[in-house]
Amino acid sequence: MPRLLGFTVLVVLAVPALAQDTAAEAQAILRKAVIAQGGQALEKAGTLSRAGKGEITSFGAAVNFTGEVSMNLPKQVRWSLELERQGQKLPVILVINGDKGWRGSLGASKEMAKEELSEMQEEAYVSWLSSLWPVANGNFTLATLPEGKVNNEPAVGIKVTEKGKPEVKLWFDKKAGWLVKSEHKGKEAGLDVLKEAVYSDYKDVNGLKLPHKMQVFSNGKKVAEWNFTGYKFPGRFEDKVFEKP
Question: Which of 152, 184, 213, 244 is most buried (CB neighbours < 10 A)?
Fold first, then answer.
């Protein structure tokens, strides 16, 4: 019994040390990513707009689109899209502004249902963490993940935890350092799903290294692809940008 008790004490004492080690390793991975993507300049990545084009898959059908996303993360986001299908163009606007959200099209708009708003707020939170600066300078619990592969290249990962928020996994190119994937468990139409965003085609933009391609997956199936054509950094968008459309 004394031997068993001694072993238990050793295990209990080792757990905090292991947690500290993995947190320190996660911080090192994060620091490398921040430096790789622009250092101090990365602070402005949470308030930006990005324009692009791509494809959305809905109910098994692929729809082309062009659009722009304006963000004061994590509370305010506006998606302005133009969907193109069978020669028809349909404008769609989605807005979240704190605890309010709206969906607009063809001059009419309606308030988002509670479930949809919650999903969009969750997406904004993950996007905020994916800008990296908040994680590097905030009060989050960090831990490392086993190495894997993203875009067929070796990747290292960290787990970001905050009380009351979804656990988010961030993966980084092992060699270059920059972010290549975010991953979290969330809701979609009320169902539990694994959501992933995969980033690639990094280019220089105003002193930052930013992705110009993003693929979005739900339970392993690609549901959207963005090819970004331009970034803007206004400092901060005025609140009127996020008013009801």
Answer: 184
Give the CA distances from residue 167 to residues 20, 53, 125, in Å, rounded to whole numbers and listed in that order.
19, 29, 11
Among residues 211, 90, 88, which one has the least CA distance to residue 80? Answer: 90
Q: Find the CATH number of the domain harbouring 115.
A: 2.50.20.10
Of 137, 140, 135, residue with least CA distance to 161: 140
Asked whether residue 1 is domain-assigned, the answer is: no
Residue 174 phi, psi (nearest 5)? -65, -35
Residue with tokens 């349909």: 90
Q: pTM (2 decimals)?
A: 0.89
Range of the domain at 226: 11-242
What's the total number of domains in the chain? 1
Tens-digit pLDDT string for the chain (245 aa)? 444 444 444 444 444 444 556 889 999 999 999 999 999 999 999 999 999 999 998 767 889 999 999 999 999 999 999 999 777 899 999 999 999 999 999 889 999 999 999 999 999 999 999 999 999 999 999 999 999 999 999 999 999 999 999 999 999 999 999 999 999 999 888 889 999 999 999 999 999 999 999 999 999 999 999 999 999 999 999 999 999 99
In a domain, 152, yes or no: yes
217 part of a folded domain: yes
163: amino acid identity, one letter: K
CA 224 to chain CA centroid, nearest Å = 14
Give dist(CA 128, CA 118) in Å, integer: 15
